[in-house]
Design brief:
This protein is mostly helical. The protein folds into two domains: about 1-65, Arc Repressor Mutant, subunit A (Orthogonal Bundle); about 75-195. About 70% of the residues lie in helices and about 0% in strands. It is built from ten helices and no strands. Helix 4 (about 65-85) runs antiparallel to helix 5 (about 100-115), helix 4 (about 65-85) crosses helix 6 (about 115-130) and helix 5 (about 100-115) packs antiparallel against helix 7. The longest helix has 22 residues, at about 65-85.
Length: about 200
């Protein structure tokens, strides 16, 4: 087999056209910028389409709905975070005791919320509208598993919901932007909440 032989395409998989891929990147960049500048509730699909230089039909064909667009914005960073806690090195990944993993998880989640706060708020906003489930389903399952390992007598579902509820994008938004709490204080406070559990 020579170096210039191209692999055959997978059966049933249609490769993305170059112009479609470019449109997708422009739309995501425009959406991220507008949501960061204005907030999700003040950013319409029309605004995003105009800023990306595409028609509204192109936007909806590509992402189906506001919720689909928000999910696409979250996918890359959430996928990297999930890979880290599912298969990455300890203490976030497997191999560390559950208490250490849970603390590392909370630290990383707070960092992700800090970096992606406007997009996370947009995801919460879309989920409240009933367009999509909360973006935290996999995170909830992971926390539930760690809580069960820490203390099987606890109601892991309830503890996971309470813990992630305390770290919701809206809560972090209020702490940072309304009260001026810095990231280090948010992390230290979250660790203090974990101490009774771990």
């Amino acid at each position: 087999m020579t170096d210039d032989v191209q692999p055959l395409p997978l059966a049933g998989v249609v490769p993305e056209r170059a112009d479609a891929a470019a449109n997708r990147l422009r739309i995501l960049a425009a959406a991220r910028r507008l949501i960061s500048e204005r907030g999700a509730e003040h950013t319409s699909m029309d605004d995003i389409a105009a800023a990306a230089g595409v028609g509204k039909g192109t936007l909806f064909r590509r992402f189906d709905s506001r919720a689909g667009l928000t999910q696409a914005l979250l996918d890359e960073s959430m996928r990297a975070f999930q890979d880290a806690f599912l298969t990455g090195p300890p203490p976030l990944g497997p191999g560390a005791p559950p208490a250490a993993r849970l603390e590392a998880f909370v630290d990383e989640l707070i960092g992700l919320l800090d970096e992606q706060l406007d997009v996370m708020l947009a995801a919460d906003f879309a989920a409240r509208g009933g367009d999509q489930p909360s973006p935290f389903g996999t995170l909830t399952l992971h926390v539930r598993t760690l809580v069960s390992e820490l203390n099987p007598a606890l109601d892991a579902d309830t503890v996971a919901d309470l813990l992630l509820g305390a770290l919701a994008a809206g809560v972090v938004h209020r702490l940072k932007r309304d009260r001026g709490v810095d990231l280090a204080t948010v992390r230290a406070s979250a660790r203090a909440l974990l101490r009774g559990l771990t």
